[in-house]
């Protein structure tokens, strides 16, 4: 091709514009367990102490742009500490979204 410059494949292009994340990439960005189905993601962990809660909160604080109004917290177990979680670096508290049951993929999950 006359007049066209060859692109060096080892050279990375500068990041200009929005960063696009695909749902399949999200598990690599968090430290806790995830489950994916279509465009839904479940982030979950066993929380036995404050340190465990801080680890889960750390994942929620990452800029993953979750829609907080669609997120729910399910606390399992009789000895569960019922800790609070926030999203978007503390701006949207999820404590109001704590539920005792949630329908997911046709199954009813109860705490």
Tally the helices: what do you get? 1
The percent of residues in helical segments reads 10-25%
Mean pLDDT: 75
Number of domains: 1
The counted number of beta strands is: 8
Shape: globular
Assembly state: single chain
**N-to-C span:** 64 Å
Biggest sheet, open or closed, and with what strands and sense?
2 strands, antiparallel
The assigned structural class equals alpha+beta
In order across it, which strands form the biggest sheet? 1-2
Extract low-pLDDT stretches. none
How much of the sequence lies in strands comes to 15-25%
Rg for CA atoms: 19 Å
The arrangement of helices and strands along the chain is: EEHEEEEEE
Sum up the structure in keywords:
111 residues, alpha+beta, two-stranded parallel ribbon, 1 helix
Describe the 3D structure.
The protein is of the alpha+beta class and 111 residues long. It has one domain (23-110). The protein is built from one helix and eight strands. It has one helix spanning 50-61, and strands at 33-37, 40-44, 73-74, 86-87, 92-93, 98-99, 101-104, 107-110. The strands form four sheets. A two-stranded antiparallel sheet has the order 1-2. A two-stranded parallel sheet has the order 3-6. A hairpin with a 2-residue loop joins strand 1 (33-37) and strand 2 (40-44). The longest helix has 12 residues, at 50-61. The protein is globular, with a radius of gyration of 19 Å. The protein starts with 32 loop residues before the first strand and ends with a strand. The mean pLDDT is 75.
Compact summary:
The chain is of the alpha+beta class and 111 residues long.
